[in-house]
Amino acid sequence: MNQTDLNLINWLLTEGVSIDSKPVESLKQWKTILNDLGEKWTRPFQRAVVGGFLADRTAYAFLTGFRAALQRLFPLMSPTCMAAFCISEEGGNHPKFIRTNLERTESSNGKQNNWVLNGNKKFITGATEADTIFVAASLGFDENGRNDIRLVKLKSNLEGVVINPMETLPFIPEISHGSVAFENVMVEDQQILEGDGYLNYIKPFRYLEDVHVSSSVLGFLYRTACLFSWEASIKEKLISLILLAQGLAEASPEQFETHIAFAGFQKQMDRLTDGLDSELDKTPRDFKAAWIRDRQIFTIAEKARHKRLEKAWNNFQAR
After folding, report:
1. Could you report the per-residue pLDDT of 253-265, keeping only the tens digit for each?
2. How far apart are CA 288 and CA 273, in angstroms?
3. 206: Cβ–Cβ under 8 A, 6 or more apart, which residues?
């Protein structure tokens, strides 16, 4: 454990003594709070935990972790950037379903020149608020049936980009989701990120999102524990899990050991949150009801996590 880790824990313990229960009035205000975090907390994990602690509801903690995961995936991305990750299409987010197409265009003299993007994406977190979007696009399928995917970075207000809001989800209603249509969007070479779009970006993000959102939720629960005088033993477990999450957030998403360790962390976190009924009874009725409602968001990727863990154990046993 280094001094930076201790500084974060010390901050949580100190802030928890004199915590302010003033509510966040709007998503716009919450974005301002998030943007201010980058001045003091330089690592995405730190911003995830601190932002979770400052959040007054699960939805804002989720958004904090989501944005921290993107900052971890794209280290050069500004801490104040509101970005969306456009992967899923009609069939889902598996590589075989990615049909948004990226093709070379031809100039008047017949030479290849830049690119054009066409397609549709759906179920995009924060789509309507994003100023930057990362889009998974296909260059086509090879002879082995493998989809050649690239990731494209675009401004959301480009000509040909149309963002539409989706219906509000039955949980975390404060966070918008949307669909995006791309119609003959012109793309330059420098807007296409280097490397395989799936292996370098989509696959690791699934893990990074899990660990950073979990970290933000732990920060949020620690805030709640301080605000409503939960048992000291609960606070101790939350602090312990935050330290464990710190190592997992900075571990390589490519290593199967990381996923095995995360599964153990997730089980500990699940046991803790499943056993909070008596503590939640100390909170206002509407707060408890909102927590029970919003917890559903954490089950969405459960099947993917199980598959990831199964593959990790298979890789370990095959060594």
Report:
1. 999 999 999 999 9
2. 12
3. 301, 304, 308
At 254-300, the pLDDT tens digits run 999 999 999 999 999 999 999 999 999 999 999 999 999 999 888 88
Angstrom distance (rounded) from CA 39 to CA 36: 6
Residue with token string 């509101």: 82
pLDDT at 5: 61
Query: Which residue, chain included where needed, has tokens 């206002």?
Result: 284
Give which of 190, 94, 207 is closest to 145, Cα–Cα. Answer: 94
Angle between helices 203-227 and 302-317 (to 10 degrees): 120
Q: What is the reported pTM? A: 0.93
Q: Where are the beta strands (DSSP E) in 127-236?
A: 132-141, 147-155, 161-165, 177-187
Euclidean distance between the first and final Cα of the chain, in Å? 30
Beta strand spans in the chain (E): 83-86, 101-106, 112-125, 132-141, 147-155, 161-165, 177-187
The residues, any chain, with a CB within 8 Å of residue 297's CB and separated by 6 or more, are: 58, 62, 169, 171, 172
Provide φ and ψ at 245, rounded to 5°: -65, -35
pLDDT (0 to 100) of residue 107: 66
> Cβ distance 124 to 179 under 8 Å?
yes
Domains assigned to the chain: 3-75+200-317 (no CATH), 83-196 (2.40.110.10)
Query: Which regions of the chain are under pLDDT 50?
Result: 1
